[in-house]
Amino acid sequence: MTNEPPSTPQEPAADELPLGTPPAFARMHTIIRRVCYVLLFALVIEGALTFPLLAIWYGIPKLSPREECSELQKVMYSDQSRECKTYAFPQPPFRGPTEAQHQTTAQDVWGVQPKPQYDSIEYRELVHNKEQREAKSAPTTTTVPK
């Protein structure tokens, strides 16, 4: 039987460390690297889920993406005639006018940080707005009983 001291984690030798990492800070650099990996992974997951969840929140199953865009613009610009435009590929942002250029119906307080005057959009509110608008614009036919 040999009397060996219990094994303790050994610090890596100076030649095993990445360039620029002094031995005294090797553990801290490892922890920082692991934290960065976790945060980057979380950002990727968040980014991958943001658009689909917002699309469902606004009403994607009942509204097409173009209808949803049009409804968002109607709320944003306080203009019930706004429609989303679709462009061929090399259109804005690469050339041509911006989407809201010369738009004057928005009721916002403009400044360094603009403050919108519309309420925040609730769950499926765009679907409700579209159904209300269609109900108002649909011709009402009444049948007279004989």
What report would you give on this structure?
The protein has 146 residues and is mostly helical. 40% of the residues lie in helices and 0% in strands. The protein is built from three helices and no strands. The longest helix has 33 residues, at 26-58. It is elongated and about 110 Å long. The model has no long low-confidence stretch (mean pLDDT 82).
Short description:
By secondary structure, this protein is mainly α. Helix content is 40%, strand content 0%.
Q: Number of helical runs?
A: 3
Strand content: under 5%
E-strand count: 0
What is the mean predicted local confidence, pLDDT?
82
Main sheet characteristics: none
Distance between the termini: 112 Å
Q: Fraction of residues in helices?
A: 40-55%
Unreliable residue stretches: none
Structural class: mainly alpha
The radius of gyration is 29 Å
